[in-house]
């Protein structure tokens, strides 16, 4: 999610954010075992078991992460929403999702700074849920999003989009009332990753099943289908919204897609098991998590080349890049002293070289 209004709101919300932080009960720290991977601008810490995705709140200056333990067909044995200090990488608080007949385990995540909430996908419970950023309190659960994988917030339109992989659907919710307001199904598709262009309101989803992008403009019930690389799992947009980038798990590539022509302009090999992608706003470079290569590739999409490869712990799973040119990578390495998965912070220098 990206919003031009956030920079203005951030300064005004600093006092509120500090007050909110002091009310949280610490849930332990992740500082023990901190190490540097090969380069001084890369730091990794053990965090928690079962890490999946993260999202950054400018309003609160907090990194949020989801964690759920238990792989199908085994039941989920635990799940947490983690509130992390992005400076120290310490866990400030951990919140447990509600439990009925099963744990309402959290996987995908995005922040809604306008309403100070968190939206998550409860993949194994076929639903999405909403939490308060201020208190971590569970606010609502919305069902019928089968194999809900990712979620993205459009703050300008008060919309939250979720991908329903098993249904081949994109589902939108009102971020104020939490009610479902739109559902568009593409028969035979398997939507996974999501991105939204907040200027136009167009939402983009990777169709993992058919190696294409689903483009849905406001008011349209007939999505445009755009080819991309093999097995795309994640998608990100350029700052001007004219280009899409997909992490192609099947081919281990980053696809650079011209959205006007609907064609792949470049295909850049990054590493085996390309899984997650994010755009660095300042330089325009693109980061790709290579799950089976244990690395993150920094790609210059204009020339179609990898400009840096950063080693990570085993099985990196997700990358989030913030406006201050910092990347946060979650892994599933179980390499911590108690079997924790890790968080790697990469302070990118590409923004400084571009004059940002």
Describe the structure.
The chain has 356 residues and is mainly beta. Helices cover 6% and strands 49% of the residues. The model is unreliable at 1-38 and 351-355 (pLDDT under 50).
Give a quick set of tags describing it.
356 residues, mainly beta, 5-stranded antiparallel β-sheet, 4-stranded antiparallel β-sheet, 6% helix, globular, disordered N terminus, disordered C terminus
Q: What is the SS-derived class? A: mainly beta
Q: What's the total helix number?
A: 3
**What gyration radius follows from the Cα positions, in whole Å?**
19 Å
Average pLDDT over all residues: 89
Spatial separation of the terminal alpha carbons: 20 Å
Short description:
By secondary structure, this protein is mostly beta strands. It has helices at 6-12, 14-22, 350-353, and strands at residues 35-36, 42-48, 51-57, 62-69, 78-84, 91-95, 109-112, 117-122, 127-132, 138-143, 148-154, 159-164, 169-174, 180-185, 191-197, 202-207, 212-216, 224-227, 232-237, 243-248, 253-258, 263-269, 274-279, 286-290, 295-300, 305-311, 316-321, 326-331, 341-347. It is globular.
